From TrEMBL:
The keyword DNA-binding applies. It holds the Pfam family Bac_DNA_binding. Signal peptide: none annotated. Keywords: DNA condensation, DNA-binding. One of its GO terms (molecular function) is structural constituent of chromatin. It comes from the Bacteria. Transmembrane segments: none annotated. It comes from Magnetococcus marinus (strain ATCC BAA-1437 / JCM 17883 / MC-1). One of its GO terms (cellular component) is cytosol. GO terms for biological process: chromosome condensation. InterPro entries: Hist_DNA-bd (IPR000119), Histone-like_DNA-bd_CS (IPR020816), IHF-like_DNA-bd_dom_sf (IPR010992). The keyword DNA-binding applies. Belongs to the bacterial histone-like protein family. This is HU family DNA-binding protein.
C-alpha cells in the first residue's frame, strides 16, 4: 500500500472526500513525526508504539575493502507492534 491507496481507504471507510482524507492522513503522519523528533513516544492502542532509540558510536568495516571505519552515534526509530496488529498479521 502507498500513501495514495491509504488516503482512498480512509476516505471510503469514513465517508470523507479523498481531499479531506488526504489532509487527515498528512496531519496524522506530521504529528507522529514531530513527536518523534522531540524524542517522545507515540503509542497507538492496538496498533503499536513508536519510540526513538540511541545507537552508540562504534567501529565498523568497509565490506568492499575491509578497512576500519568509525560510525558516529545516531538516533533511530523503533516500532513495537501491538497485540491486535500481531493477531491480524498472524491470522
Amino acid at each position: 500500500m502507498n500513501l495514495g491507496e491509504l488516503k482512498k481507504i480512509v476516505a471510503d471507510k469514513t465517508g470523507m472526500s479523498q481531499a479531506d482524507a488526504g489532509r487527515a492522513v498528512a496531519a496524522t503522519l506530521e504529528a507522529i513525526s514531530e513527536s518523534l523528533g522531540q524524542s517522545a513516544t507515540v503509542s497507538l492502542l492496538g496498533f503499536g508504539t513508536f519510540s526513538v532509540g540511541e545507537r552508540a558510536a562504534r567501529e565498523g568495516r568497509n565490506p568492499q575493502t575491509g578497512e576500519k571505519i568509525n560510525i558516529s552515534a545516531s538516533r533511530t526509530i523503533r516500532f513495537k507492534a501491538g497485540q491486535s496488529l500481531r493477531e491480524k498479521v498472524n491470522g
